[in-house]
Amino acid sequence: MPSQGNLTIINALPNTNIQITCDSNNWNCCDAPQPGTDLGSLKPYTSLLYPCFRKGGHGCDGNQGVWTLDILGNSLSLGTQPFQIDGDGNIDFNGSNTGAFTSYLVNSGSNNVIWIILPVIS
User: Fold this and answer.
1) Topology classification of domain 3-118
2) pLDDT tens across 49-108, in order?
3) Cα 53 from Cα 67, distance rounded (Å)
4) 7: nearest Cα among 37, 49, 44, 46
5) pTM score
6) How many angstroms separate the CA atoms of 11 and 69, rounded?
7) 81 exposed, middle or buried (CB, 10 Å; 0-12, 13-18, 19+)?
8) CB of 38 closer than 8 Å to CB of 21
9) Which pairs with CB-CB distance under 8 Å and at least 24 residues apart come from 98-103?
10) In DSSP terms, which residues pair with 67 in a beta bridge?
11) Rounded Cα distance, 61 and 54, in Å
12) How far apart are alpha carbons 82 and 69 in whole angstroms?
């Protein structure tokens, strides 16, 4: 049976418009997002809500749904962030991000998480 989690994405990168898409690599057992999906564009300090669905059946029962999001900032690659969703709809990181940003997840309950994308602080 598919399970749903909601991912709210916040762009906290000053002066950087970002575009988020689902990578074609490192994807499995997800009904959403699908590879190549454009999740949307975000201006600085704005957010979007994206519902994520783990696939049920089809060899996916007992497995995490996994996907990787690509981030473009002002048309340049900022890197990627892998995610996973379990059979209860809980979303978490599935490894470290790669690239010119840092980020963290806030669990806001009821299968809702907030992903905040921040500049790297040195």
Assistant:
1) Mutm (Fpg) Protein; Chain: A, domain 2 (2.60.270)
2) 999 999 887 778 778 999 999 999 998 999 999 999 998 999 999 999 988 899 999 999
3) 11
4) 49
5) 0.92
6) 14
7) buried
8) yes
9) 99/71, 100/73, 101/13, 101/71, 101/73
10) 83
11) 9
12) 6
Residue 5 bridge partners (DSSP): 52
Dihedral sign, CA of 20, 116, 25, 51? negative
Query: What one-letter code names the amino acid at 102?
Result: T
Which single residue is written with the structure tokens 């806030």?
106
Cis ω for the linkage preceding 33 (within 30 of 0): yes
Tokens encoding 57: 């059946």
Q: Residue holding tokens 């201006």?
A: 43
Read off the DSSP letter of residue 34.
Answer: P
Strand partners, 18: 42, 73
Q: Give the pLDDT confidence of 23-54 residue by residue, as tens digits.
A: 998 899 999 999 999 999 999 999 999 999 99
Which SS3 state, helix, strand or coil, does residue 73 take? strand
